[in-house]
Amino acid sequence: MINEKPIEVAPDIFFIGAFDPDIRTFDIIMKTANGSSYNAYLIKTSEGVIIVDTVKIEFQEQFFKKIESLCTYDEIKYVILHHLEPDHAGAIPELMNRVKDDVKVLISPQATAMLKAITKRDNIDFETVWTNKSLKLGEKTIKFLTTPYLHWPETMSSYVEEDGLLFSGDVFGSHYYDRRLFDDLVSDFFYAFKYYYDHIMRPFKSYALNALKLYDKLDINIIAPLHGPILRQKPYKYIEYYRKWSQNDFKDVFHGKKVVSIFYLTSYKNTKDMAESIFEGAESVKGIIANVYDLASIEEQNMINILEESDGILIGTPTINADAPKPVWDLLSCMMLLEKRGKTGGAFGSYGWSGEAVEMILHRLKSLNFKVPPLEPMKIKLIPTQEELKQCYDYGVEFAEIVNGKMVEITMN
To answer: How far apart are alpha carbons 50 and 38 in whole angstroms?
Structure first.
């Protein structure tokens, strides 16, 4: 039986969220073998109650029962919303129907339009908050922290000074259900913690590092995220995991050189031959490390790791039935898990009839916000000649020089 009672997290601070043990896929892209939770919290003070986030609409009755076991709706003075994604904002419309009209909703400045869209109301009394703003109610002082793009533009965090409790938002979350709730009581969930980072936070590593600078100024005893276990046993170890995973230390690994990764798929060796000539050209450029990878023989996690460490990415593809083959699109789908700012992209390939695939890949790279240099598309009909392989070599040189800082007009979407 799932616990329907509030759970005290710190003095007068309660978990009022909902457990979802049966969910197996989250946001399409994530597997949730252990289910998940939608964490929400309630803070009691001598001057009133603060609700911190809500739950997915399907679980709102659990949420309201827990509130009602702790207070009346008339006692609620504030609602803090760290993130307005539906799994956290689903119960907001009904909550606003139940509380008094003068309850103030606290959100980040970027969340204003979203709040109105979710509630379908223009008369909500709300206030925008950011770093250095605070709320004092009774015995509790809450400092707000601006932490955008973790993982939506309007996300923020907050900190209860008296308890050293960080409401982190989605940061430090896990899709992991265990009714014992606290990290020192639940089963080993590290795999879920890392998986969550890789699929939710990894594309926003620079923003994570900015958030850590704010968290580093705090004395944190408990981290209360929006999903998964509450972290109270050595919470700083989870902060250090994020710091380690978010730091781009590839310059040290590659001794300050830029990395150009060349992926290819080949039907009759023609695109492979092109890839090898491009590799030789790129590798000849001082300050560049080039590598070649066969997409037919590389696993997704290895793709992600290689893409992440790469400054320049070239994708070689044949054209089959007027399209690029599935492994090429699989590679491109991995890009959604990465921070792509600063990366340069390009495409090449051999074709038999129409040759659309190269332009398709270039278009996709631009839409993913890669820097795409204005080079002539490297397309060769059927078997490349020695002269055409020399052109591939020159293309590799030119692309690597651009990755290395050569000034050209870059095309971005």
So the answer is: 17
Phi, psi (deg, nearest 5) at residue 361 = -65, -40
Task: Output the pLDDT for position 411.
Answer: 57
> Token pair 């270039």 is at which residue?
362
Distance CA 183, CA 46 (A): 30
**Distance, CA of 322 to chain centre:** 33
d(C-alpha 321, C-alpha 364), whole Å: 18
What distance separates the 2 farthest-apart alpha carbons in the chain? 82
CB atoms within 10 A of CB 8: 10
Q: What is the DSSP-derived secondary structure letter of residue 242?
A: H
Check residue 221 and report its DSSP letter: S
Q: What angle do CA 120, 123, 128 make, to 5 degrees?
A: 95
Exposure class string for 289-323: b at 16+ Cβ within 10 A, else e:
bbebbebeeeeeeebbebbbbbbbbbbbbbbbeee
pLDDT digit string, tens, across residues 326-362: 999 999 998 888 887 789 999 999 998 888 999 999 9
Token pair listed for 232: 């109270």
Strand ranges, E, within 122-175: 126-128, 134-137, 140-146, 156-160, 165-169
pLDDT tens for residues 241-258?
999 999 866 555 566 789
d(CA 275, CA 269): 10
- What pLDDT is recorded for position 132? 92
Task: Check residue 1 and give its pLDDT.
Answer: 47
Q: What phi and psi values does residue 58 have, to the nearest 5 degrees?
A: -65, -15
- Specify whether the backbone of 371 is left (phi greater than 0), alpha (psi in -120 to 50) or beta: beta
Cα–Cα distance, 102 to 74 (Å, whole number) = 10
Q: What is the dihedral of CA 354, 355, 357, 359, to 10 degrees?
A: -110
Alpha helices (H) in 130-186, listed in sequence order: none
pLDDT of the residue at 250 = 56
pLDDT the model gives residue 149: 92
Model confidence, pTM: 0.79
| Residue listed under structure tokens 């590092």 | 209
Distance CA 297, CA 303 (A): 10
Indicate the average pLDDT of the chain.
93
**DSSP secondary structure code for residue 233 in this structure:** S
- Regions of the chain with pLDDT less than 50: 1
Architecture of domain 7-246: 4-Layer Sandwich (3.60)
Fold of domain 250-403: Rossmann fold (3.40.50)
List the chain domain ranges: 7-246, 250-403
CA dist., res. 348 & res. 369, Å (int) = 18
